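Hi R.,

Here's the chain you asked about this morning:
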Amino acid sequence: MKDLIAICGLDCETCDARIATLTDDDALREKTAKAWSEMNHAPITPEMINCEGCRVDGVKTPFCEAMCPIRQCALKRGFATCGDCPDMETCKTVGMLHSSDPEARKRLTGRE
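And here is the predicted structure, written out as C-alpha cells:
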C-alpha cells in the first residue's frame, strides 16, 4: 500500500493540506482552513494547514498529529492502517468516515 494512503484510507496525495504544504501555497491554506472550519464546526486557521501525510515522517495538522481518534487507535494498537485491524468492518469510528467516503474503505481493502 502506498505510504500516502492515510491510516483511515483517505488519499493524502490529494489532500489540500499536503498540497499547500509541499507547494507553500498560502492561498490554498486559507481556502482549506475556511472549508475545514465550516465542515467541522471548529476554528481552523491557515497556520494549522501544514501536513506531509498521515503515515510519513514530517509535519502534520494538529488534528492529524494528536486528535484524530482513528490515527490514535491504530498507532496504539500497532497497525499501519485500519485495513490491518480485524475489527475494521465493525468499527464505528472509522465506519463513519467510510460511510461518507466509500473509496477510503476500498483503498484499505482493495474491494468494494
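One quick note: Residues 12-109 form one domain.

Cheers,
M.
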